[in-house]
Specification:
heterodimer; A: 496 residues; 2 strands; globular; B: 930 residues; mainly alpha; two-stranded antiparallel ribbon; 4 strands; elongated; transport (chain B); ion transport (chain B)
């Protein structure tokens, strides 16, 4: 048992208070904490990957055995999510330093670190109630980040965001109370074993609990019709915060995966995912894509693109087939990075143009930004040659069902049309007004944008190396025996 | 390896303009074109190998799971296209250098052009169907950039988007078709797929795959009914039209049909779909071309028509037709690219492309005239030029298919082709000189005329010596299409018994007649209503954008109540479904007897809840009623033997109610009525059902036994022995599940930070700040803001409350209490000071910064947890021991207590920071002024 496993949670949990305690009046030091902490988290996450490839690793908090205490389980999936989060956070952090977003309100860096603590905690935990706790951490920190910088509209959207998600939290608690009331345990692996062994007469209530949890994760993952909180939140959040949020919806997807693979027995999962997730995922993709086509502002367009990408993810998750899961994971990595890229570019457009409105032309924007947008749009729409295309092809190929094909291809078309429309208005039409573009992207911000693009390029070029690892993860999820064994649970019903 | 280099060279060339931004146009063109030239040389080196029947390949794995690999293969067909792409590419680069004017952004143009070149080359070299798809879509994207190159022109922007929409849609359909094809064939390797004709044509999925693939090919090659985008794409600079939209990109669809010809052709479906679309396109394109006034428009529609011709030939499915198709690809590329470049010259030098404003240019622009004359005659199919040869081959094939009407229609198409070709010569170059050209026309410099001249030389040479010039390549590529080569024979004279001869003659007669009747035909044409693909498409796109806008606005109207209503409705529906589709046995656990006291509490709870419903618009009253509910819940906890929970609930209740009261001070006192009554009823029903559902769920849980022993049993047994405390709840909080507590105190701390940051925003200049400053206290409601009695009592209570806090903290591990409750109690003590003595008074007497309290609290808790690492134990592992310090009794020291101190500080800090933030609002609103 290596203490490295807990560090992704403890490190930001300590750096955050240190920032509060010692550097309240030292903006430069706050930046150092934010940047240094995020970079350290990336190094940590990368160091954890080889550990995870040795099989799931258990970390017993307080040295209490599972299921009586809380455990962390580091498996490949958790490590992957840690890496993705830390990389994204680092890019966002650099962008923030480049644009000075952190100076527009109080406590940005402390909140940023706490947000990362919440995300990492959620990815690492092997305990259902602890997952709830970290959902709370990331919810409240994200609320703080969302309203960072203020403004009437943003604060109003913030209230809606936090209210809606608190309803989700209440459902989470009720769901947890129900599974605990049925099984007497909270450890995820233990839950899976006990639920599988429940008598027939308990099936109805168990299924209610499963539905409750699924709905909670669907809220986090913005699954239609539980997505209504997302468009305003993402569109009105500060650009870099919205970019960081690209990984927040993935927490919902991640939790859904854990629910489906570890906590619920196969039969229940198949019924639930097939009946609820599959159609809802398709609806999500279409509603998101329509939103992209109809958006009147770039920020909203980016937000709806995020909804659409979650549609694709949930379609993939609903299939419960290792090949599809691997494809979905690949697409999920892609859509996180691409979504963040689009939000950061949106922020640049808003800054340089003083508006993100898509109904009127304004003087032209710099060519660099146009080029970056072009790449981001290709990535978002899932066009070749970037990873989005490979991800979609993987999903299509492993899920040869005509409704899925139609939905995904139609979705791509709508996204493409919508993004071509806004790109043409933002970057071309302005030349009717003025011959020369004005303004430029701050160097650090440009660095962050290029880094994100390069990550997409790497994801594309090294698809052949990355995909087998994802197949392994999907296989582990499909047959979670190693995960369960790592928990070292006592024989059912026996006393330790 | 060479092949990989060939494929990479154009992309590397695309980087040059960005890498050498200071280079002048000439050197930059030279540098960039050298990449194309090198690629051309490398391809040419492989000609002998290809001719001898080999196919150089290159393979590199990419994503094996998908069947995607970077596999390139240079067979005859690929060779033909590669030579066209690179050869014409070189000419176009030269031409573009002189065509674009100074104010055009030349560097990006070169980059786009080279990107396109790379993508197009990729299509023809790919031996992997998915790799081909990638390059396919890349051509759509680069073409989008090139058509929209003149950003300030609305036609350019619209043309670009339309081209992308049409070819992109086709591309998406093709993705599906290709995936089906590769699944039938069991491989995505094209050379493997091509060997599976029987399997593919026998598959029930053959027809869907065929249709989907043809959608891609037809959209790309502008076949009816998707042909309308190509004329719109003519808004692009002329080098682009010459390169993409006549010689190369639009031939990608044709290339694909040729590539897959061995496995897809030969069925009736193929014949009717492909030959049918080709024939219709050929006729419609030729007819519309004849009536165009825009020079480029005429060429665009004639391109549509000729693409139709090639498609028609491929659709026929015979070997001879395939040979004719391949040959016509070469011929069309030569004369049409030359014509486009010449049209660009006319536009460039005469200042207009409108045929009605031109005429008589033969004397003013003799070189251009010569070029156009030869190329047009070839397009018209006049012997001995190369266009004649392939047209004859086409007519010959058309004559041999049934029904006979096909031959007739093909002749008609050829006739129209003659008509517009002659019109091009006659109306632009012949006739009298005019005085009203926008520019005085003259021949351009060699930079502009030399590239088309080279192509025209080819037109003549191929025409004169077809076998020597092109026999080898046509043979090789037709061989690649049909699978057997070696018997290509092209000649001018097939004898008097050849139907093609008579059809040709008929076509010439038809063409001449049409030209002589042009004014009358034009009047007729202008009098007939025409379905405008462009307009229909624009309506379709505009309409779907508006529709999505409407749908989006309808779904996302921003109303929070509706969003929550939907969430609860979904919950209800899903929950009911889940419950009713699985077996359920009611619980067997006997209920506890209901006592009088509990019943009273229950009644109070219900009454208070209904009262909230009734009075929720009066906010203060609603708050007090809410606190009644909270109190009853606390009492219920105490009644059900959970004193810790009761204490926590009670203190939390007090703190939140007090904080909300303070906050309410700055808010309106009543909630306005917003929703109409029917909506109230609907929302009420959903809320009530949800509440009842949750109630039923809890009832079901409480009336049953768990199937397994709960983990709580372990906690009860081991709290004292392993956790060192007799208060199991506290041991759970700080030890068994201390990690949860660590998370939760962080949540509290963050919440306080967020409150602080939010209030900070409100206090910065803005509407909220203005409102605050104009806020006046409700003097009528409270005569005395700080009643003396209240002030005195609370100040006296402060030390007492602090002591209570310490007491509760210390006894926590064994008796009800602990850091969390203690923090709240102390917090309440301070809260009371704020309420009694005022924000300013209290604030000025608090020396410790609340941020620091939170920071210190989380830090202490975290470091206590991390301390365990020193002993090699996991985070938050506790340790306890007993010490005796005379004169005190033996007492227990536990690291858990240190952790609990962190909890205490964080909770206290959070409560304090929240109050202090509200206090800042109070001070800003002028509390101190009164």
């Amino acid at each position: 048992m290596t203490h490295l496993i807990i560090l992704p949670v403890v490190l930001p949990a300590l750096l955050g208070p240190i920032t509060l305690l010692f550097f309240r009046a030292h903006p430069a030091a706050q930046r150092a904490m934010g940047l240094g902490g995020t970079a350290a988290l990336l190094a940590l996450a990368l160091a954890l990957w080889p550990i995870a490839t040795d099989g799931p690793q258990l970390y017993r908090l307080g040295d209490w055995p599972a299921p009586f205490g809380i455990v962390l389980v580091l498996d490949r999936l958790a490590a992957l999510m840690l890496i993705l989060t830390a990389f994204l956070a680092l890019a966002v952090q650099i962008y923030v330093l480049g644009t000075g977003w952190d100076r527009k309100g109080r406590h940005f860096h402390a909140l940023f670190l706490f947000q990362l603590m919440g995300l990492n905690g959620a990815f690492l935990t092997g305990d259902a109630f602890n997952l709830f706790v970290f959902f709370e951490v990331l919810l409240i920190a994200s609320y703080g980040l969302m309203v960072h910088g203020g403004g009437t509209n943003r604060i109003r959207a913030g209230v809606q965001y936090v209210t809606y998600n608190l309803v989700g939290s209440s459902l989470f608690l009720i769901g947890l109370a129900t599974v605990y009331g049925m099984t007497g345990t909270l450890n995820m692996a233990d839950l899976g074993q006990r639920i599988a062994a429940l008598p027939d007469g308990d099936m109805a209530l168990t299924r209610v609990a499963a539905v409750l949890l699924l709905l909670v994760f669907a809220i986090k993952g913005a699954l239609v019709p539980l997505h209504l909180w997302l468009p305003n939140t993402y569109a009105l959040a500060p650009g870099p915060v919205a970019a960081l949020f690209a990984v927040m919806t993935k927490v919902g997807a991640y939790a859904t995966l854990r629910l489906g693979s570890v906590m619920l027995p196969k039969g229940t999962t198949e019924l639930l995912f097939g009946t609820l997730l599959a159609p809802a995922g398709m609806l999500t993709l279409i509603i998101g894509a329509l939103g992209v086509l109809g958006a009147k502002g770039l920020a909203r367009q980016a937000a709806f693109a995020a909804v659409a990408s979650m549609g694709t993810v949930f379609i993939g998750l609903s299939a419960l087939d290792p090949a599809v899961t691997a494809a979905t994971l690949y697409y999920m990595i892609h859509s996180t990075l691409a979504g963040a890229l689009l939000f950061l570019i949106t922020d640049q457009v808003q800054t340089l143009r003083n508006s993100d409105d898509l109904t009127q032309a304004r003087p032209p924007l710099p060519g660099t930004l146009a080029a970056l947008f072009f790449v981001a749009a290709i990535a978002t729409a899932g066009m070749p040659p970037l990873s989005g295309f490979l991800g979609k092809l993987l999903i299509l190929q492993s899920l040869p069902v005509w409704p899925v094909w139609t939905t995904i291809l139609l979705g791509s078309l709508l996204l493409m049309l919508g993004l071509a429309r806004s790109g043409s208005l933002l970057f071309w039409k302005g030349y009717e007004i003025a011959a020369q573009p004005t303004g430029q992207i701050p160097p650090l911000a440009r660095f962050a944008l290029v880094a994100l693009i390069l990550s997409l390029v790497a994801l594309t070029l090294f698809a052949g190396q990355i995909h087998p690892a994802l197949q392994q993860i999907a296989q582990d999820l499909h047959d979670p025996i190693a995960y369960v064994q790592a928990n070292d649970l006592p024989a059912m019903g026996a006393k330790p | 390896m060479t092949l990989a280099l060939v494929a990479a060279l154009p992309f590397l060339g695309a980087l040059m303009p960005a890498l050498f931004p200071r280079l002048g146009r000439g050197p930059l063109t030279l540098l960039t074109a050298s990449f194309t030239a090198l690629a051309l040389i490398l391809v040419a080196r492989d000609i002998p190998a290809v001719m001898s029947g080999q196919a150089p390949t290159y393979a590199q794995d990419w994503l094996p799971a998908l069947g995607l690999s970077f596999t390139l293969r240079l067979d005859g067909l690929a060779l033909l296209f590669a030579l066209l792409i690179l050869g014409i590419g070189l000419l176009i680069l030269t031409y573009a250098r002189f065509y674009l004017c100074e104010k055009d952004a030349f560097a990006p143009f070169l980059t786009y052009l080279m990107l396109f070149q790379g993508a197009m080359l990729g299509i023809v070299l790919s031996d992997n169907i998915l790799l081909l798809l990638i390059f396919w879509e890349l051509t759509s994207l680069s073409s989008f950039l090139l058509i929209g190159f003149w950003k300030h022109l609305p036609e350019g922007r619209q043309g670009a988007r339309m081209a992308l929409a049409v070819t992109g849609t086709g591309g998406l359909a093709m993705i599906a078709g290709m995936l089906i094809l590769s699944q039938i064939a069991g491989s995505s390797q094209i050379s493997v797929i091509l060997t599976k004709t029987a399997e593919i044509q026998a598959s029930p999925l053959y027809l869907p795959a065929l249709i989907l693939i043809l959608l891609g090919a037809f959209t790309k090659s502008a076949q009816f009914p998707f042909h309308f985008w190509l004329p719109q794409a003519m808004a692009a600079p002329t080098p682009v039209s010459a390169y993409l939209h006549s010689a190369t990109m639009v031939k990608a669809g044709i290339f694909l049909m040729a590539r897959l010809w061995p496995v897809l052709s030969g069925t009736p479906e193929w014949f009717w779909l492909v030959a049918g679309a080709g024939l219709i396109t050929m006729l419609i394109g030729a007819k519309v071309a004849f009536f165009q006034h825009d020079l480029k428009g005429l060429l665009a529609y004639s391109t549509v028509s000729h693409l139709g011709l090639i498609t028609f030939l491929l659709g026929l499915g015979s070997k001879a037709a395939a040979i004719a198709a391949v040959f016509h690809i070469v011929n069309h590329a030569t004369f049409k690219a030359a014509l486009f470049m010449a049209a660009g010259i006319v536009d460039h030098e005469a200042g207009t492309r409108d045929i009605r404003r031109l005429g008589g240019l033969r004397r003013l622009m003799p070189v251009t005239f010569a070029l156009v004359l030869i190329a047009s005659l070839s397009m018209a199919g006049v012997p001995p030029l190369n266009g004649f040869l392939s047209k004859e081959m086409m007519l010959e094939e058309a004559a041999h298919v049934s029904p006979w009407v096909i031959g007739l229609l093909a002749t008609l198409g050829a006739g129209l082709s003659v008509a517009y070709s002659l019109r091009l010569i006659a109306h632009v170059f012949l006739g009298p000189d005019r005085a009203d050209y926008p520019h005085p026309p003259h021949d351009p410099g060699p930079g502009l005329w030399l590239p088309p001249a080279l192509l025209v030389v080819l037109v003549v040479l191929i025409g004169l010596a077809p076998m020597a010039m092109t026999g080898w390549i046509v043979n090789a590529s037709a061989g690649a299409v049909t699978g057997q080569g070696g018997d290509v024979h092209i000649s001018h004279w097939h004898g008097l018994h050849s139907p093609a001869l008579w059809m040709s003659l008929a076509a010439f007669g038809l063409g001449l007649m049409a030209l002589s009747l042009f004014p009358r035909l034009l009047a007729l044409w202008e009098g007939t209503p025409k379905p405008q693909g462009k307009r229909i498409f624009a309506h379709l796109i505009g309409g779907s954008a508006r529709l999505s806008q409407a749908i989006t606005a309808l779904i996302h109207n921003g109303a929070q109540t509706r969003a929550l209503m939907i969430a609860l409705a979904v919950l209800l529906a899903a929950g009911t479904w889940a419950f009713s589709t699985a077996p359920h046995l009611p619980g067997t656990r006997p209920p506890l007897p209901s006592e009088g006291l509990a019943l009273v509490g229950w009644l109070v709870l219900i009454t208070a809840s209904f009262a909230i419903l009734r009075f929720h618009r009066q906010r203060l009253l609603a708050l007090i009623l809410t606190s009644v509910v909270g109190l009853i819940v606390s009492a219920a906890f105490a009644y059900l033997s959970a004193p810790d929970l009761a204490l926590t609930q009670l203190t939390v209740e007090v703190v939140t109610v007090l904080l909300m009261m303070l906050a309410l001070n700055f808010l309106p006192k009543a909630t306005p009525r917003e929703d109409p009554i029917p909506r109230h009823i609907r929302d009420g029903a959903i809320a009530a059902l949800t509440g009842l559902g949750v109630g039923a769920l809890i009832y079901a849980l409480m009336t049953r036994q768990m199937a397994f022993p709960s983990i709580a049993e372990y906690h009860l047994e081991n709290a004292k022995t392993l956790g060192g405390g007799t208060n199991v709840v506290n041991v759970i909080l700080v030890d068994f599940r201390g990690y949860d507590t660590f998370g939760e105190i962080t949540v509290m701390g963050i919440a306080a930070l967020v409150i602080y940051a939010l209030i900070d925003q409100l206090l910065s200049p803005g509407p909220a700040n203005d409102r605050l400053q104009s806020l006046r206290p409700h003097e009528g409601d409270a005569g005395d803001r700080h009643p003396l009695l209240f002030v005195t009592v609370t100040r006296a209570l402060l030390p007492l409350a602090l002591l209570t806090g310490v007491f509760i903290f210390l006894r926590g591990h064994n008796m009800p209490g602990g850091g969390f409750i203690a923090g709240l109690v102390v917090g309440i003590a301070f809260l009371m000071q704020y309420m009694a003595s005022g924000f300013g008074w209290t604030q000025s007497r608090l020396r410790i910064d609340h941020h620091a309290l939170i920071g210190a609290g989380v830090l202490i808790a975290g470091l206590t947890g991390a301390g365990a690492w020193a002993w090699g134990l996991p985070f938050l592992t506790s340790h306890f021991g007993y010490v005796t310090l005379p004169p005190l009794d033996k007492f227990e020291l536990a690291t858990a207590a240190l952790f609990d101190l962190g909890v205490f500080l964080t909770v206290l800090g959070a409560v304090q920071l929240a109050i202090a933030s509200i206090a800042r609002l109070g001070i800003r609103s002028g509390e101190g002024r009164i």
